[in-house]
Amino acid sequence: MTHPLIVGNWKMHGDGAWLDRVAAIAGAVAVPQIDVALCVPATLIHRAATIAPGLTIGAQDCHWAATGAHTGAISAMMLREAGAQVMILGHSERRAAGDDDAHVAAKVAAAQNAGLRVILCVGESAAERDDGAATARVRAQLIASLPERLTAGLTIAYEPIWAIGRGVIPSPVEITSVVDGIRSVLTARNVANARVLYGGSVTAAATRDLLARTDIDGLLVGAASLKPATFSEIIGAAIGLTNLDRPKPRL
Ligand SMILES: O=C(CO)COP(=O)(O)O
């Protein structure tokens, strides 16, 4: 039986008043058969980790350097010290804001050096999908976004840009093709045990079908992670599925 990994990405949402939501989500995950992480804004990491020690708290980006003259930036080690245990990197919203593959690879190295577990996001645009190039694009992006040296604890999140915040999810055939492509890259890099998540318009209703697939190890959830009731429903659906006999443990 696998341990599904459900990750909430709050993006740039949440202030101190939202710590109640962190506590509510922590209450929904106090079971051993599932891994849940909540990636909150940097300003909430310390407080979230303090009030919810049983919940894995994550960050959403970091600088690639360990220290230096980088005004306004935050290093991976600073985020870890604040209480982050995982780090989303390469999200399409950060890539759209200027991160290229080389930046992402350097950030992955920095986060791994700081002892953080990385959730590396990849995904094709609508135009690339329409060209039938989704798998090739994602493979190329993943290859270029991985640093030379990799340590354990890597997770890849397949997030098609056209599915984020749009209420659409790729067909099972589309997901299979891209996820197979991702796994072939991971095998070539000797990290075949890395988990692969799906992200993009995940809802409680879609959770069961997505997690019933044997090639997806979990979900990266945006909007539906903002409300504890909705996110708890997703977590509950995932817990229900851990009772199914899933053939490929990946931990
Ligand atoms: O970008 C995402 C998670 O990182 C997905 O966002 P939505 O779930 O809101 O589509």
UniProtKB/TrEMBL annotation:
SUPFAM superfamilies: Triosephosphate isomerase (TIM) (SSF51351). Its EC number is 5.3.1.1. Coiled coil: none annotated. Pfam families: TIM. Homodimer. Belongs to the triosephosphate isomerase family. This is Triosephosphate isomerase. The gene is tpiA_1.
